[in-house]
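Why this split exists: single-chain examples teach little about how molecules sit against one another. For that reason, every record in the complexes split bundles all components of an assembly together and asks for one structure covering all of them. Below is a record exactly as it appears in the raw files.
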Amino acid sequence: MTEDTNPLSLNVPEPGCRPGDTPDFSDFEIPQAGAVPRPPVDADPDSIRDMAFSIVRVLNKEGAAVGDWAGALSVDELRQGLRHMLTLRTYDARMLTAQRQGKTSFYMQHLGEEAVSCAFARAMRPGDMNFPTYRQAGLLIARDYPMVTMMNQIFSNAEDPLHGRQLPIMYSSQEHGFFSISGNLGTQFVQSVGWAMASAISGDTKIAAGWIGDGSTAESDFHAAMVFASTYKAPVVLNIVNNQWAISTFQGIARGGVGTFAARGHGFGIASIRVDGNDYLAVHAVAKWACERARLGLGPTLIEHVTYRAGGHSTSDDPSAYRSRREAAAWPLGDPIERLKQHLIVLGEWSEDRHLQAEAEVLDEVKTAQKTAEAVGTLASGKQPSPRDMFEGVYETMPPHLIRQRQEAGF
Amino acid sequence: MAKMTMIEAIREAHDVAMEADERVVVYGEDVGYFGGVFRCTAGLQAKYGTSRCFDAPINEAGIVGTAIGMAAYGLKPVIEIQFADYVYPAYDQIVSEAARLRHRSNGDFTCPIVIRMPTGGGIFGGQTHSQSPEALFTHVSGLKVAMPSNPRDAKGLLLASIADPDPVIFLEPKRLYNGPFDGHHENPLVSWKNHPLGEVPDGDDIVPLGKAAIRREGADVTVLAYGTMVYVAQAAAEETGIDAEVLDLRTLMPLDLDAITSSVKKTGRCVIVHEATRTSGFGAELMSLVQESCFYHLEAPIIRVTGWDTPYPHAQEWEYFPGPARVGEALKKVMED
Ligand SMILES: Cc1ncc(C[n+]2csc(CCOP(=O)(O)OP(=O)(O)O)c2C)c(N)n1
Ligand SMILES: [Mg+2]
């Protein structure tokens, strides 16, 4: 056989670690905190190409905030950020338990990824619009959306603003800059670009943020978003949350041969940055940079938030079937809550005691909200939405055939 | 013969086909190492290697598009769309490409692919894990459409679909994966263990595409159903005491019109049941066919029992799902007319 006729074979990427293996992140290059300089917001995307291969980090191992990207948040804002993340984590834990108790059908948690949505939310302004996935409830919590209302949605009870129509966690709140969540992956990413284009068309000052998971970047809608954002320089921040997993599929299947997800932006001439998604300060600083850029009409930014999905994909998932149980603990970027807590302690603005106290307060708040929501009802009992609600809202005005069907149904 | 769930039967059909024919390749989201979110392909990667069973990027258009390319090369891809609700990004590849390739190239290229997808509700999946899009496929010339209602048919129909020279949309009623379900959600789960159709023949026995099966013989009314609705219809017949004949269509395209007409001509009455939305649903096609071929035998207007023309709701699942009470009402009504 001559060299050019060797049989071909299919390349199927494999993760480094499956159940039973020892987690090994030694290939994962993590720059020192503070190592990546902060470019001016009007930087030419071409001049910052290396940022797609590095990682913006602010908090170092000792818990100090270092480098160009540090210093944007006051101590009060940091404490508030910690509170938001604690709230999200506690909320998740309670809702997971509620699902196991049969009070709802389904839940998806953020464990390990709390900094991404909680910090990003603080860089946006009222009136801006997020197009989230199901794993950014921090956008609501950090914007003071009422937790009882979130729970009403989880329980599909009579006060669920979506009238029980949607799967739990698929919130919607125009008022809080949170576009209605779809179960169909990727669709929202390109819609965020359209919203941003509309703001530009209308001479408005608002910006949009699109959200997508690492796995879902494979969807065609991701690429559609990139080309529209690039062509029209839409005032949008495009966020990829790379939590390493898409259900059982490791990120290498969606990423293919390219070094990072952020590098996908280069082909479109979009400013592309990777950030330590478990570093509240770094996420916030990068989000602020990108939002400012969008607001100044300088075009879109692609941000890859490097983080880790420490929990199961959803309540229907058992990750021990496809990844090592020890992988989460081995994740080198640590835990976002722990890291911000350490930072505040290093600053002398926090302590273990205050942290315990904050945890207790948050738990109290979440429990109180849960009592209120459960007093209305859950999927299993209490006051539930009317079956009439399923016929409402298909159209603005119910057409005759639906009126007939509703009557036939007896509602 | 072995006792199996529908999931195990589907897995075994893959196994038999992959064993027998090296051209069979299996892929989809989470299909490889993990074996699919419903575990229908569990163990196949370990047995046949990553070249023949692998994880796909989350891009349904890509999954179907690459399958068409593989088929053009000469392979026989059997691909999974994680939920039928997620097939829409692939619709162009299915409708404009897979379905028409044979015709437009005059057989120069063909498309023997199987596109599997879990279908239907009953699991509190809300609007994106519950849909029944069969009519979106039966409407397209060039596609075959199958929907098994039990483990035995799941294996036999899947083997027939893999052997078929044309593209087959293979709809798996996910509520039936682990046991028959008659719509009485308040009752404990039933397993396939004690069900005769949970007995699955070994080997490569197929269930041919285009053949319906009578699940309950009856003299007074014919119920046309498929998937989960087969059990709902049987329950409705038992509970109303109406002597209904329940036909499990098993394949919607090609359709066993002979079985339908001979049953309707015998009973003189017809009720059509499906979980999908009503308007332009497959029931409309069935109703036209029955009207065209059995008009002079009909003693009452044909009735449809279907999902409502709304998105599949989360909390109102059982008000949406056409359960035995609604089917029973239709049976009574068609007997009164
Ligand atoms: C169009 C579409 N295809 C498939 C699915 C099924 N699905 C739901 S979540 C998921 C994995 C998504 O992974 P990723 O984008 O990384 O987000 P993560 O869950 O990690 O936040 C899949 C395949 C879906 N919801 N929509
Ligand atoms: Mg992911």
